[in-house]
Write a structure and sequence with these properties.
Layout (H helix, E strand, L loop, with lengths): L23 H32 L1 H12 L1 H28 L6 H28 L2
Helix pairs in contact: 1-2, 1-3, 1-4, 2-3, 3-4
Length: about 130
């Protein structure tokens, strides 16, 4: 049995990022993954806050001071944005799972609205929380 020598292809066998043009759906797909990672990290911080609350008044006061600092509030803002963006992106995927929204115009509009709605919800949450303090 003689085996034929296989020559490697001179071109990529599958598309690469250099070939694709960035679109809203691609950007929101990446953002969905990034916000999912942010949710994992933020959940660790929430768990640390709960441990501080269970550890006594001194530990809880320290955790509250950190969360109330400018950096702490920025982290909380980004965490809430991650939560809203990931939720709205999940709803977009849910619509796709039902077999709807695959038309190019609809797909792009849904991707754009994912960002707009998540920003609006995050701002709304923070306005309500800060106004009711």
């Amino acid at each position: 049995m003689i085996l034929a020598e296989v020559k490697p292809a001179a071109r990529p066998l599958s598309p690469h990022l250099q070939i694709y043009r960035w679109s809203w759906t691609m950007a929101m797909s990446v953002a969905h993954r990034v916000t999912g990672t942010g949710l994992y990290l933020g959940t660790v911080l929430i768990a640390a806050w709960l441990v501080a609350a269970a550890s006594g008044p001194a530990a809880f006061d320290t955790a509250q001071w950190i969360a109330g600092s400018i950096l702490g509030r920025l982290v909380l803002f980004l965490y809430s944005f991650s939560l809203m963006h990931h939720m709205v992106g999940g709803l977009r995927h849910f619509v796709w799972d039902m077999g709807k929204g695959y038309e190019p115009q609809t797909r792009m509009a849904m991707a754009k609205f994912t960002l707009v709605i998540s920003v609006a919800l995050t701002i709304l949450i923070w306005v309500v929380v800060l106004a009711t303090r």
